[in-house]
Design brief:
The protein is an alpha/beta fold. The chain folds into two domains: 2-53; 70-253, Rossmann fold (3-Layer(aba) Sandwich), CATH 3.40.50.150. The protein is built from ten helices and twelve strands. The chain has helices at 13-26, 38-45, 71-81, 87-92, 109-117, 131-143, 149-157, 165-171, 209-216, 230-235; strands at residues 4-7, 29-30, 49-53, 56-61, 64-67, 99-102, 123-128, 158-162, 176-181, 219-226, 240-242, 250-255. The strands form two sheets. It has a seven-stranded mixed β-sheet, sandwiched between helices. Helix 3 runs parallel beside helix 5 (109-117), helix 5 crosses helix 7 and helix 6 crosses helix 7. It holds the Pfam family SAM_MT. This is SAM-dependent methyltransferase. InterPro entries: 16SrRNA_methylTrfase_J (IPR007536), SAM-dependent_MTases_sf (IPR029063).
């Protein structure tokens, strides 16, 4: 996959240089704008391309455009500052620094929240299989600057890897404190109009019992985000459920490694 990257019509010299450097970094193809309309860029790219702007790369698809945003994590970070609970962090149950593997990074909100809210020294590795979405999220982790230095630092601490989690889990020799899955990103979330531009550029694959079994051999804890934990409980009756009583989001918690069959 070779992404076509260009700049906005009136991009400054600094932005043009940054765009070319970033295009080289992601292995894309840089196309000089030279007055080309969005319609012409659509023809040249086959429908999907990136416009690099002063605010970062913007992904254009037939359904709209998408750029990196901290909005989904911003509210949760503000709540953490106020001392309010975050059910995802409770599900992770990290009492000290450790290593988190986010298998379904998507827009990065959960990885950012974990990097910000978990004990100092915690490492977060984030995987994303979609090359189109991945380059935007990775740019945000590496380059987005927040007005609060601790938020920017949380972004920089995330290690992003463009890879299918099934391949990674079968290859990796690392052992994690938590392996996390958010299969909700692949289906219900994309029904929102805010995510319309991403509908055709993400991989819609349901999580399987085989993959969960594999994850349980590579982590002390596996956490799965879901609207209902019943389907997970049918496979793992000993799972623990974390989430608000009236919340539409729940977290299934499974103990891995030597703890997997203690319940």
């Amino acid at each position: 996959m070779k992404l076509i990257v260009t700049t906005s019509m009136k991009a400054s010299g600094t932005v043009c240089i940054a765009a070319k450097q970033w295009t080289h970094h992601i292995g894309g193809i840089f196309v000089e704008r030279w007055g080309k309309s969005l319609e012409r860029l659509t023809e040249l790219s086959g429908g999907i391309f990136i416009v690099y702007t002063a605010k970062g790369p913007q992904l254009y698809t037939p359904q709209g455009k998408h750029g990196f945003s901290l909005q989904l994590a911003e509210l949760r970070i503000k709540k953490l500052r106020r001392g309010e609970r975050d059910y995802l962090l409770e599900a992770f149950d990290m009492r000290q620094a450790g290593h988190i593997l986010d298998c379904t990074c998507g827009l990065g909100a959960d990885a950012i929240t974990a990097s910000f809210g978990l004990p100092s020294g915690t490492r977060v590795t984030a995987l994303e299989n979609s090359p189109y979405l991945g380059v935007i999220t990775a740019w945000g982790f590496q380059h987005y600057r927040h007005e609060k230095e601790d938020v920017t630092a949380a972004l920089r601490r995330i290690r992003f890897i463009a890879m299918d989690y099934q391949i990674w889990l079968r290859r990796t020799s690392e052992y994690y404190d938590v392996i996390y899955f958010d299969p909700m990103f692949a289906h219900p979330v994309l029904l929102s109009s805010n995510f319309k531009p991403l509908r055709n550029v993400v991989t819609l694959e349901p999580i399987t019992k085989e993959i969960i079994d594999l994850a349980l051999t590579k982590a002390s804890r596996v956490v799965i985000k879901t609207q209902s934990t019943k389907w997970i409980q049918s496979w793992f009756p000993w799972m623990e459920n974390i989430g608000g009583k009236y919340s539409h989001i729940q977290y299934a918690v499974l103990k891995g490694g030597s703890q997997a069959w203690t319940k």
